[in-house]
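Let us practice reading a record.
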Amino acid sequence: MPLDGLFTIARWGIVAVDYHLVYRIHAVAHAQLYAGGLIERVRWFVPSAQATEYCPGVVHIPVDAYNRYLELLQACISSPDQNELRSSTTARMRRSIAELARANWRFEHHWSPSSLHELLAAAKRAMAFYNFNDETGLPGRLLNRLGDLVGSLCLQQVLTPVVTPYMLLLAARAGAAATQPTKTYLDRFRNGAVFLREFDPPELVEPDHTSLIHLAGQYRANTAPETPPARRRRRRTAFQELVQATAGWPDADHTLFIELVTLACAAADHEEARHYWQARTMRNLRRVCAATGLDLRAATLLEIAQAGEWSCADPPR
């Protein structure tokens, strides 16, 4: 279960990830969010690991520290003895998204150097668990453990995120704005969804009133997405059925399986929510760059943070 874009430099005794190459990122700061997240993730499992950002967007990890990280990650998703690590990782995933949501809201309503620093720190903590299910293969492992179709179908329902998929949210907000192009609905579309079109656009220009109406017609959906409460109800029902379907297993196996399902659920929700709040964070960094004259394509997170000296009474929008 290697990380995306990982390569080993034997001469230096390190493993490295260059996020400019992994995701073909335009903005240096965006690559740094991924890099900071990887450092947070390795240190979550191995607090003593000397993972560092060698240059903006490029992470170096000593081979020994990386191997230890892999050992503990493997234990987290397979060992009955690591229930505390599993539960703390699950809680950390959920907490990191809540923290990033609060940090974005605080920054948008109270522009200041301190709220910007809080936003950047929260973004790195949330990025620590990006692609967790994909890179660990945890959902596939759980499906392989089930021998019957009913249990597999229940598991697939349980692992469906309760968070509204970000592209469906974009379409729903666009649909509302297209149907009722009033200031209220256009503002909701502009401030709460339009940034989901692209995660890493190099330009700083935000759509004006006319462009918003055009975009609303372009991205609108024919049907409204299922609400999060409805998804939660569906997940609860499927989870109860899954527990019943596996009730005959030995206690130790059953406990481990349910713990891993809970972890995979948190990771699935985290992934969907992370997409949204990551895009919203990048939107806010674009606004900082537009307000301070920085070039988003070249500015580092440090430069953006240091440039946050604007009037809190009249923040740019």
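A brief commentary: The chain has a mean pLDDT of 90.
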